[in-house]
């Protein structure tokens, strides 16, 4: 049985998203074939050294952008890009939002509250509210 091939437009979209994140610093095939540790090295090649937790969350954001999931993510990237944010600033905004969502989910989980908000819904909502306000000097 043949493995289904992605629609040509979907493949082109994924390459566009990959190039947005990595430019020419990482080859798409190198990323696709890399295991978790190798991907961490490729992220460091692109973004420089990061504390482990930040690198982990940035890696999740990068994987989401490249995959185009959740569906609201790429339109948010395009909107911020059109507003004049460069790729690093956009990815930093996304990393901060996802970090907040993870922290809130961990805190809520520790409270034993059965009426917890849906982290995925909160993520989508916060994507719609980007950009984050600039920190005050």
Structural class: mainly alpha
The number of helical segments is: 7
* Gross geometry: globular
Number of strands: 0
Mean residue pLDDT:
86
What is the terminal-to-terminal distance?
A: 61 Å
* Low-pLDDT residue intervals, each spanning 5 or more residues: none
Q: Report the portion of residues in β strands.
A: under 5%
Helical proportion, percent range: 55-70%
Radius of gyration: 16 Å
What's the order of the H and E elements? Answer: HHHHHHH
Largest sheet geometry: none
Description:
The protein has 137 residues and is an all-alpha fold. It contains 7 helices and no strands. The chain has helices at residues 8-22, 28-33, 36-47, 52-67, 73-82, 87-110, 119-129.
Can you give me a brief rundown of this structure?
The chain is mainly alpha-helical.
Core attributes:
137 residues; mainly alpha; 7 helices; 0% strand
List the helices and strands and how they pair.
Blueprint: H1 8-22, H2 28-33, H3 36-47, H4 52-67, H5 73-82, H6 87-110, H7 119-129
Helix pairs in contact: 1-4, 3-4, 4-6, 6-7
